[in-house]
Amino acid sequence: MTTAVKDMTHGGGGGGAALALNVMRLRTFIALFAVLIFFSLAAPNFLSTANLILMSKHVALNAFLAIGMTFVIITGGIDLSVGSIVGLCGMVAGGLILNGVNLDFLGFAYTLYFNVPEIILITLALGIFIGAINGVLITRLGVAPFIATLGTLYVMRGLALLLSQGRTFPNLVGNPEHGTEGFAIIGSGSFLGLPLTIWILIAVALAAAYIAKRTPVGRHIFAVGGNESAAALSGIRVDRVKMFVYMFSGFCAAIVGLIIASQLMAAHPATGETFELNAIAAAVLGGTSMSGGHGTIGGTIVGAFVIGILSDGLVMMGVSSFWQIVIKGLVIIAAVVVDQAQRRLQHRVVLRQMASET
């Protein structure tokens, strides 16, 4: 494709198409600079250090979900359950800190408490397990990803409500007698002047980028999204690849559940509602194709920054929350339209190049 574009720039009438393609490829960065410039001029103190740190923490939550969503969408799927996984995982972590696990064995009642590292591992394992459920529904039972994850969305949200009968788990400071102190550090801790949340995001993003670019699993993810039948015929275990991406998405959602509960020092069963929409928007805006086979982790991170900056900037300008929803919807539509236009233009460029060579 790169060769084709270069050749077209030297051929007659091809320069315009090549320029349009390059602009479309850079659309996420252009959008990022546009919103930064606009809000820096329209909103006072938008570029202040305190506001930038706060925005980065907001962006990180969306970015975690968007990274997992990117892998899912690249395979041609969708995961609508991530917001509910966030809520359930936060509730499980909060319940373990406050109440532990009540055991009744042979007439002996006992409450088992876990320390914070154990609670983190249990919560992350829960997110992976829910992702595995999505994977089984899609690969083994043949349920369409949209329907499977929509059903999981309702089930997990209902379980989150049942854990506390709809109430909040408050004041998650922990108890030194039970070894449950220190949960707050996940959401409010810092290292070298940056919030710990950002460092966790950097680690997850680098790991995801490495998987996508440097491992067989990453190549298989793109192959499945590009042509699932061809991938299966070439020996790729398609079902295992799909299981992996949904489990990874559940893992990312569990991280967000832990961070939000830690930041608020409370867990609410409604946490994470509509988070899946922001994750999809960030991935698509970052260049991930809804038809599968294309996407980058770096583009998704930039897309998450665009969505996050847009949301915070609109709040600082006092824009109604209703209009914020409308604007986000328009951004998603625009991103998909540009993606489809880019694919059509790439196809025409390739056809012209092939015709010129014959």
Structure notes:
This protein is mainly alpha-helical. The protein has a domain at 51-274 and 290-295. It has helices spanning 2-10, 15-25, 27-42, 49-74, 82-98, 116-139, 145-164, 185-188, 196-214, 216-226, 228-233, 238-264, 275-285, 297-316, 321-357; strands at residues 101-105, 108-112, 190-191, 194-195. The longest helix has 37 residues, at 321-357. It is globular, with a radius of gyration of 22 Å. This is Erythritol transport system permease protein.
Task: Give a short overview.
The protein is mainly alpha-helical and 358 residues long.
Q: Helices and strands in order, then pairings?
A:
Blueprint: H1 2-10, H2 15-25, H3 27-42, H4 49-74, H5 82-98, E1 101-105, E2 108-112, H6 116-139, H7 145-164, H8 185-188, E3 190-191, E4 194-195, H9 196-214, H10 216-226, H11 228-233, H12 238-264, H13 275-285, H14 297-316, H15 321-357
Antiparallel strand pairs: 1-2, 3-4
Helix pairs in contact: 1-2, 1-15, 2-15, 3-14, 4-9, 4-12, 4-13, 4-14, 5-6, 5-7, 5-12, 6-7, 6-12, 9-10, 10-12, 13-14, 13-15
**Residue fraction in strands:** under 5%
Mean pLDDT: 86
Count of individual beta strands: 4
Distance from first to last alpha carbon: 17 Å
Main β-sheet, spatial strand arrangement: 1-2
Nearest-angstrom radius of gyration? 22 Å
Low-confidence stretches: 1-13
Categorize the overall geometry: globular
Supply database-style keywords.
358 residues; mainly alpha; two-stranded antiparallel sheet; 4 strands; 4% strand; disordered N terminus
